Amino acid sequence: MRKNNQYKFNNSHTKKYLIGVSGFLILFMGIMFSPYIFGKSYSYAEAKMNEYQTINNTMRMSLVKKEYNPEEKLVRLDFLVDETAEVTSLPNIKYEVESKYVSGNKKTKSEIKKINNNYFIIFIKDVPKDFEVLSTMIIPTYINPELQSTNDLENKSLKIYVNQTDKIENLKLKIQPDTYYQKEFLMFKQKDISNQISEKETIIEHKEMSIKEIKKLIKDLESELQYQTEDEKFETYNTIQSHKTTIKKYENDIEEENIFIKELNERIKMLEQRKIKG
C-alpha cells in the first residue's frame, strides 16, 4: 500500500513537471513565431545619428545620413570616420558590407563609394517598400595588412538597423557620379563648420551678458562703500577685485573665441574654393 502511494505521488509530480515544461514551450514558441502569425515585426534599436561608435582603439564611425527612395528601391547610408592615431591608417582601409532584411533574413546587393579617407557612402539596392527593418554590417579591413604594426581590425565590425519610416524618404535619391558626392561632402563640412561658429557665437553672447551683469553688480557694490565700516570695505574691495578678475577672464575668452571663429570662416572659404575648382 505504501509503495502504491509512493508511486502515485511520484507520478503526480511527473505530470505536473511535464505540464509545466509543455506550457513554457508553448509560450516560448508563441513569442518566437507571433510576428509571422500576426504579420508584425519586432522593434530594433536604430543607430543614433551623429553618434560615434568605436571600432578599435583609434578608429570610430558615425552614421550621419540615411535616406530611402521607395520608387527606386534604394537606401543610402553615409558614414563619417574619425581616427586619433598619430600616423593615420585610413588610406589603407577598405569596407565590406553585409545587408539583409531582418524579416525573412534575405540578403541584399550593396555598393560602396569611398568619397575620401574620412567619408564613405553605402547604397543598398532593391529594397522593397515593406522592408520593415534593414540590418547592415560594415566590416573594415586593411588593404595591405603588412603595412600595419598590428591587424587591429581583425574581427571588427559595426552593425546598424534602419527601421522603415516616412522620415527618411527622399524621392529624389539616386546614385550619382563620385564628383557629385565629393562636392556634397565639402558642403557637409561647411555646414558642420557653420554650426561650430554658431556655437562659438552663443558662447560669446552668454559671456558678454555675464560681463554686463557683473559690471552692474560692481557698480552696486561701489555705491555701498560710503556706508560701510573699514572692515566691510575691505571685504567689498576684495569682492569687487574678484569680479573684475572674472570680467578679464571672460574678455580673454571672448577674444580667443573670435580668433577661432575667424579661422573657421577661413576654412569655409577654402572649402568653397575647392568646390569651385571641382
| Helix count, DSSP H or I runs of 4 or more residues | 3
Strand order of the largest sheet: 1-2-3-6-5
- State the shape: elongated
Tell me what the CATH architecture of the largest domain is: Sandwich
The count of domains is 3
Label the structural class. alpha+beta
Could you tell me the number of beta strands?
A: 8
| CATH class placement of the largest domain | Mainly Beta
CATH topology of the largest domain: Immunoglobulin-like
* Succession of helices and strands: HEEEEEEEEHH
Report low-confidence residues grouped into runs of 5 or more. Answer: 24-41
Report Rg: 32 Å
Average the pLDDT over all residues and give the rounded result.
Answer: 87
How would a textbook summarize the main sheet? 5 strands, antiparallel
Classify the beta-strand content into a percent band: 15-25%
Helix content: 40-55%
End-to-end separation: 99 Å
CATH superfamily of the largest domain: Conserved domain protein
What would you note in describing this structure?
There is one protein chain. The chain is of the alpha+beta class and 278 residues long. The chain folds into 3 domains: 40 residues; 123 residues, Conserved domain protein (Immunoglobulin-like, Sandwich); 97 residues. Helices cover 47% and strands 23% of the residues. It has 3 helices and 8 strands. Strands 1-2-3-6-5 form a 5-stranded antiparallel sheet. Strands 4-7-8 form a 3-stranded antiparallel sheet, with no helix packed on it. Helix 2 runs antiparallel to helix 3. The radius of gyration is 32 Å and the shape is elongated.
